[in-house]
Specification:
Layout lengths: L1 E6 L4 H17 L3 E6 L2 H5 L8 E4 L2 E5 L5 H9 L1
Parallel strand pairs: 1-2
Antiparallel strand pairs: 1-3, 3-4
Helix pairs in contact: 1-3
Length: 78
């Protein structure tokens, strides 16, 4: 199971990123454990400059934007 975290306050863009991540996992046929991280101190620990952020298996793969479903699928397949 792949560990996926969405970093952000819960704003509309954060919710869109969560939906994209779930859709990408389904399309890629991989199981994910998705966690929404809203605590500011926890978000700052990832050293991102803007939210929403996407972390896959402990590595920040995106911040400050909503990646495409295709991009997320590629990250999940690696």
């Amino acid at each position: 199971m792949i560990d996926v975290k969405v970093l952000g306050s819960g704003c509309p863009n954060c919710r869109r990123l969560e939906a994209v991540a779930r859709q990408a996992a389904q399309a890629a046929g991989v199981a994910i454990e998705l966690e929404k991280v809203t605590d500011l101190q926890a978000i700052l620990a990832y050293e991102i400059l803007a939210t929403p952020g996407l972390v896959i298996d402990g590595k920040v793969v995106s911040s400050g934007r909503i990646p495409t479903q295709t991009e997320v699928e590629g990250w999940l397949r690696r």
